[in-house]
Amino acid sequence: MLQDYEITNLTNLKPNKWMDRLMVVIEFILVLFLIQSALMLFTGQAGQEDEIRFRILSHSNAPADQKLKEEIRHAIEPMINQAISRAESKAEIVDNLKAIEATVLATAKSMADGQDVSFERTAALFPPKRSGLVITPQAPYDAYILTIGSGRGDNWWCSLFPRVCFPDKDVDKKEDEKVTFFIWEWIKSLFD
Length: 192
What we know:
By secondary structure, the protein is an alpha+beta fold. Helices cover 46% and strands 18% of the residues. The protein contains six helices and six strands. Helix 2 packs antiparallel against helix 3.
């Protein structure tokens, strides 16, 4: 004969609060991963490989060398922006930039007070950069490198797009604000 088993009514079981809270946190983290994956798909890294970046290396970190680097950047920036704005494809951008290489080099040499200046297109290693929701990984990118003197000073870099190109103007204002993370505060409140 078969033994009789007692059937437990599942509605009478007391829920474990810790387990419920843990499941909520795990589900929330999974949703965040899904959102991040979707954002990466739609904002994606597409086109990052097609960008042409620019880097200016100063002779040293001395204030005079850094100032010279900034002056040269201000002088050549309109030429580069004009060459880029007139193009509709990467091939046209490359052709337009190739056409102004001599002018950019001559302008930089005239401002460099006799220092050696070189301007070449090469694959250059760029550090990671975040712009909005897009994070550009550290990797070698197609770039024009303008080197003043020994090129051992801090560098300045940019890509074709102004949001990635230039630092945010409001960075100094944001440093004064205390940063709190809503998600972290919410998770802490679940376990209090």
